[in-house]
Design brief:
elongated, EC 2.3.1.109, ten-stranded mixed sheet, Acyl_CoA_acyltransferase, 16 strands, Aminopeptidase, six-stranded mixed sheet, arginine N-succinyltransferase activity
Length: 334
């Protein structure tokens, strides 16, 4: 059985392995043990309630209960842009009009903004390539919304997701080469690593302060604006299914799009109800997404659930996987 559970420092080796597999451009999963250990320590403190809600960053591991192997991870960051600005480019239209020649010009431009401050971010969604079918991705992705639903007041009214930007078949990043590198003047991998391993001061120091006219950048970089990495297409489809839509914001490094949605409009949150759990035979009941109802001991699985008169009946394996006692509350996605 696949179980989504909180991550902690003991998961460092598995997280490092996934970081290596994830490849270039996966900013939230750098190949750096110190950075990953800090993240796992922060996750443990977040689930235990040891830090302020807005500073929490919850990391979830997808574990195969039969083999013990970690098959993927996902994350929920309670609020971005709190300790430091969270910069994006907004793709805007700047209109210019000349009465002398009675002509109007509309120019697309990239404008540096800090609009996401305080938003909750769902991200870090990564699965081993061999697990990208059979519902594992859906379980992992939706478990993040189940987590948010357990204690909504801990999370922002707006939820965002940043999708990895486009990389060419030769491994280059057209948006970085055509735009961002002109300001940061570092190799992409070095700048990408610095995002997570430093306080980000270099972004504050070097990011462009004035609009960048899209017509003035090369064609390859223009075409990469808002384009998703080939490995991110499935993630985008899942986001759209939950109600996320493009926000008009893009990443300042790789040009990938930022999607957003009102927290209470996320489909999984809307269609989830809280029920008392009971151990029994669900018989031919349908499989549903089910999680614990508390943040501290959060766990999520897919299992057969029979719902009758406010009671969710699950078999012994599901009850054990969720570490529940009969009568405890669960959240069930309809």
């Amino acid at each position: 059985m696949l179980i989504v559970r909180p991550a902690g420092p003991s998961d460092l080796a598995s997280l490092m392995e996934l970081a290596v597999l994830s490849g270039r451009g996966f900013t939230s999963l750098p190949e750096d043990e110190a950075t990953l250990l800090n993240r796992l320590t922060l996750s443990e403190a977040s689930f235990s309630g040891a830090i302020a809600p807005r500073e929490a960053w919850y990391t979830l591991m997808l574990e195969d209960s039969e083999t013990g192997r970690i098959e993927g991870l996902g994350g929920v960051r309670a609020a971005v842009g709190v300790a430091r600005p969270h910069f994006s480019f907004r793709v805007m239209t700047l209109a210019q009009f000349s009465s002398a020649i009675n002509t109007r010009f509309d120019h697309k431009a990239l404008v540096l903004v800090n609009e996401c401050a305080g938003w909750t971010e769902v991200g870090s969604l990564y699965l081993r390539p061999e697990r990208r079918s059979g519902g594992a991705g859906s379980l992992l992705a939706r478990s993040r919304y189940m987590l948010i639903g357990t204690e909504r007041q801990r999370f922002s009214e707006t939820v965002m997701a940043e999708l990895r930007g486009y990389f060419a078949p030769d491994g280059t990043c057209p948006f970085w080469d055509g735009v961002a590198s002109k300001f940061f003047r570092l190799p992409f991998d070095e700048a990408d690593h610095m995002v997570m391993s430093t306080d980000g001061q270099f972004i504050l120091d070097l990011a462009p302060r004035h609009p960048i006219y899209v017509e003035l950048i090369d064609t390859a970089a223009q075409e990469a604006i808002g384009r998703v990495h080939i490995e991110g297409e499935a993630a985008r489809a899942m986001l759209e299914h939950e109600g996320f839509r493009g926000s008009g914001l893009i990443d300042i490094f790789d040009g990938g799009p930022t999607y957003s949605v009102p927290r209470d409009s996320i489909r999984t949150i809307e269609r989830t109800e809280v029920l008392a759990a009971m151990k029994g035979d669900p018989a031919d009941a349908p499989e549903r997404l089910v999680s614990t109802a508390s943040l501290g001991g959060f766990r999520a699985i897919r299992a057969k659930v029979r719902i009758e008169e406010g009671v969710a009946t699950l078999d012994g394996g599901a009850i054990d996987a969720l570490r529940l006692k009969s009568g405890e509350m669960v959240r069930v996605r309809q």
